[in-house]
Amino acid sequence: MNTEKTATPSWTFLTNHAHVLLCLAQNPSERIRDIAVEVGITERAVQRIIVELEADGYLERIRDGRRNVYKVFSRKPLRHDIEKHRQVHDLIKLIKK
Predict the structure, then answer these.
(1) Cα separations (Å) of 75 from 2, 5, 19, 78, 87?
(2) How far apart are the C-alpha atoms of 71 and 27, rounded to whole Å?
(3) Domain boundaries, the chain
(4) What is the pLDDT of residues 59-91, one digit of tens each?
(5) Which CATH fold topology does 16-95 show?
(6) How far apart are CA 45 and CA 60, in angstroms?
């Protein structure tokens, strides 16, 4: 997680859904609280995004004791007509830290 304080941009090239998915691809057991801080949105917004990603088959939530671990299905196609010829793993590879 980046602890540097920087000004939040008024817009970004990727959606919050992409940001949450990228966080979970990088760290499958990252806490919702930490994702919210990293993405710059509320915990409730992260929870909603995770539910939507799960509902559409991009994530699976796996309980590990008291924690959740997320499996990202990286072979799923991206959703928009412009990028649907690419898969999630292409985005992850492009952005990977």
Answers:
(1) 28, 34, 17, 9, 6
(2) 10
(3) 16-95
(4) 999 999 999 999 999 999 999 999 999 999 999
(5) Arc Repressor Mutant, subunit A (1.10.10)
(6) 18
Q: Look-up: residue for tokens 């959740």?
A: 68
Dump pLDDT digits (tens) for 22-71. Answer: 999 999 999 999 999 999 999 999 999 999 999 999 999 999 999 999 99
For 32-60, b where at least 16 C-beta lie within 10 A, e where not — what string? Answer: beebbebbebeeebbeebbeebeeeebbe
Q: Are 46 and 20 in contact (CB under 8 A)?
A: yes
Helix or strand or coil: residue 75?
coil
- Tokens matching residue 17: 């859904």
What b/e string do you get for 61-84 counting C-beta neighbours within 10 Å, with b at 16 or more? eeeeeeebebebeeeeebeeeeee
For 42, phi then psi, to 5°, come to: -80, 160
pLDDT of residue 96: 87
What does the pLDDT read at residue 9?
78
